[in-house]
Amino acid sequence: MSFNDLIRASVVCYAADGILQDSLIKLDAGISTDLPVGAVVDEDGESAASTGSIAYVLVEPAKAGDKYLIVANPVMVVLNAEALETSLDHASVVATLLAKGYVFADYGTVALRTT
Fold first, then answer.
1. Do β-strands 22-26 and 12-15 pair in parallel, antiparallel, or remain unpaired?
2. What are the residue ranges spanned by the domains of the chain?
């Protein structure tokens, strides 16, 4: 299994609730390839092939054959856009995820707006 250097804390800037920060997604079939933390995936758990197929952002790595994924809950977390793992246009991916309710912040600018 290949991993990138990212961990959950690399992708999640802030979690409003430690329990509700992620969701378990059960799949009908196992995924075809290893996926790192930050991977942008479709409903079937495969790397999203287009922005229209984006469904989730992984917060835990997954290995080929897994029938479950641990993904960010868009309501409970602020994500680091720079940690997204995708071959698609980065700006388009972020725009698509924003439209799905995900929130982003930049560690260098602000991790959590408080005012």
1. unpaired
2. 8-104
